[in-house]
Design brief:
Strands 1-2-3-4 form a 4-stranded antiparallel beta sheet, with no helix packed on it. With 237 residues, it is of the alpha+beta class. Helix content is 24%, strand content 30%. The protein has 2 domains: 79 residues; 125 residues, Methylamine Dehydrogenase, Chain H. InterPro entries: Quinoprotein_ADH-like_sf, WD40/YVTN_repeat-like_dom_sf, WD40_repeat_CS, WD40_rpt.
Length: 237
Amino acid sequence: MKVHTMHWLEAMSILGMSRSTPGALERLYKWARDVGVDDTRVLAYDAYRFATFFADTIAEHPAMVTQVALPFAPLESTIYQLFHDHRELPTVMGGYEQKWSPSDLVRMFNSIAFSPDGKVFAAGSGDGNLYIWRTETGEKLFGPLEGHNAEVILVIFSPEGNELYSASEDGNVRIWDVRTGEEIGPVLQGHFNAVSAMSFSQDGSRLVSGAFKDNIQTWDVSESRTGELVRVSRHDR
């Protein structure tokens, strides 16, 4: 990859397959992350950002990806550092970015939350999926995380920051392991309408959720993760 990434992008564009490159690079990134090949993981993620951001340019100028798109990549990006030769390629003198933007997706997000230590942040989208990013670099760690049948309304982290709770228009609350991206524990089911509010008790053992024109429900989310509904608080409005 350290030699032929740009050649591969150009070849895919010439073959009329440039629109499929971000998906291929994302799959490569996930594989490298899972097996612990850090160099490939970093470059695959950076190439994914490049292929996504410059998708139109790559599709329209298949033989000139290096000359047309690469000079405008962030200066500190891996792909710029590896492939931009100042002696042969144009250099942007002003208005450039140092790093990729933290957000690599253009979609509607209903809720965004930081972990308690601020090292990662998560977002829930209108298509029912969740995403988790590393705050410092903007690297996407996990996502799309699928499970909800309707748009995600709210996301919050547990007090320890190891778990992410997502509430949806489908009336359910789902629990995710921030370290692996896997769904854990039972689905908290009981609301008849979209869940619009959540809050933890001080010790983190109880979660209170509220829904539009619905009851307020208290759940056992202690280490046993029973997900038991321990209290229903009714209100008139």
